[in-house]
């Protein structure tokens, strides 16, 4: 498949608390065919660790 399914963008950033739900969201997107783009960004908002993970649709020339 040369484009993401369901009209999804080729670049996505998922953000959220560092918990099982966030990990499941990233896993689901990888399951669609996206690939991780670099490592995650991590910060602390005073209460929770917050993660941002970029994902890209693979383009094989």
UniProtKB/TrEMBL annotation:
Domain of life: Bacteria
Segments forming domain DUF1737: 10-56
Pfam families: DUF1737 (PF08410)
InterPro entries, sorted: DUF1737
This protein's name: DUF1737 domain-containing protein
Organism (species): Streptomyces lacrimifluminis
């Amino acid at each position: 498949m040369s484009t993401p399914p369901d009209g999804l963008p080729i670049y996505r950033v998922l953000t959220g608390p560092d918990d099982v739900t966030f990990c499941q969201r990233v896993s689901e997107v990888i399951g669609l065919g996206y690939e991780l783009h670099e490592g995650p960004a991590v910060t602390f908002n005073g209460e929770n660790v917050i993660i941002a993970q970029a994902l890209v649709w693979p383009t094989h020339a």
